[in-house]
Write a structure and sequence with these properties.
The complex is a heterodimer of chains A (194) and B (131). In chain A, 71% of the residues lie in helices and 0% in strands. Chain A has 194 residues and is an all-alpha fold. Chain A is elongated. In chain B, 66% of the residues lie in helices and 0% in strands. Chain B starts with a helix and ends with a helix. Chain B has a domain of 67 residues. Chain B is mainly α and 131 residues long. The chains are: A mainly alpha (194), B mainly alpha (131). At the A-B interface, helix 1, helix 2, helix 3, helix 6 and helix 9 of A face helix 1 and helix 2 of B.
């Protein structure tokens, strides 16, 4: 989709949101292009389903549009707010289909791995995504936000509404579980010397 | 030998790096839907114009009012009609002949002693002709 950037790339999310609330069409475009991928990334890794992830991303952005006129600058970062809304929307969806995702993820992780010669970066990403789906939801949230989104522990604590120590515990347990899930594939694929 | 936490991190990093390098892409359809909702939200809520844009609508300026009333000639006519009506109201029709000279002095305005609406209209026309 081709859209013109009418605003500088370094314009902050908060400034863009204020401009959006003031009716600037360019701010709507810039926020759409900048933040929709963020919500989609998190939703995809939390849900493991592209169609559902798109629905969640769209819903999260719709909530952003609605809250824009009442946004109070300095109270929270827009990105933190968006992460929190996206995570919560994903949690709602996972509750509705509880059990299904874990079974599906287990099949993927325990199933026959792809041929060694074809396991390239895309396969690693897919393997990780499948392994993530077999983690408990809270660990998955913490690991995705920390190791894929690259957020700090305090910011993750803010998003998840828990303490920093709890975040550290969740990510540590999540990493251990992932390492165990992916260990077999690493050895099969000769990654032991990475 | 059991893996340490550092071993776990080292083992996982290639997978995390691969995931970061291959994020799910927001396709054009999704972006279009999101943008459409953004524009709908903006349209649904009256918001102040930005970028120094002039208000879309406002009170007409002085020129607009004058134009609507037929220019300065029309203004003069309206003023004269208003004054005449006021004077008639104070003095009654019987005294109009006298009143006219007192009011207009040497302006040379003439009209019937019992003007009615036509009389006032003549007065207005005369005043406009002199303007």
């Amino acid at each position: 989709m081709v859209m013109a950037f009418d605003l500088p790339d370094d314009t902050s999310d908060e400034d863009l949101l204020a401009r959006f609330a003031a009716g600037e069409a360019a701010a709507a475009r810039a926020l759409t292009l900048r933040l929709t991928p963020v919500a989609l990334r998190v939703a995809q890794r939390m849900l493991g389903d592209a169609a559902e992830a798109e629905d969640v991303a769209q819903e999260a952005m719709l909530r952003l549009w609605r809250i824009a006129p009442d946004w109070r600058p300095g109270v929270a970062r827009v990105s933190t707010w968006l992460y929190r809304v996206t995570v919560n929307l994903c949690t709602d969806r996972l509750r509705r289909r509880r059990g299904v995702a874990l079974e599906a993820a287990g099949d993927v992780v325990d199933g026959t791995p792809a041929a060694v010669s074809t396991l390239i970066e895309a396969d690693r990403a897919a393997a990780l995504e499948a392994a993530l789906m077999s983690l408990p939801e809270r660990q998955r949230q913490a690991v995705v936000l920390r190791h894929i989104e690259g957020l700090s522990n305090p910011e993750i604590a803010d998003i998840l509404g828990i303490g920093v120590e709890a975040v550290e515990s969740l990510t540590a347990r999540g990493r251990r579980a992932l390492a165990a899930l992916l260990a077999g594939r690493r050895e099969e694929l000769g990654y032991g010397d990475d | 030998m059991a893996m340490t936490e550092r071993d776990d991190d080292r083992a996982l990093e290639p997978f995390f790096a691969a995931a970061r390098a291959r994020p799910p892409e927001a396709g054009p359809d999704l972006l279009a839907r999101v943008l459409a909702e953004a524009e709908a939200a903006q349209a649904a809520r009256p918001m102040p114009a930005r970028d120094g844009a002039a208000p879309a609508a406002g009170l007409p300026g002085g020129r607009g009012i004058i134009g609507m009333l037929g220019g300065w000639g029309g203004i003069g006519g309206l003023l004269a009609a208003g004054l005449a009506g006021l004077w008639i109201g104070f003095t009654g029709t019987g005294a109009l002949g006298t009143a006219s000279s007192e009011l207009w002095g040497s302006a040379g305005v003439t009209f019937d002693a019992d003007p009615g609406a036509d009389g006032v209209f003549s007065l207005v026309l005369d005043l406009e002709a002199e303007a």
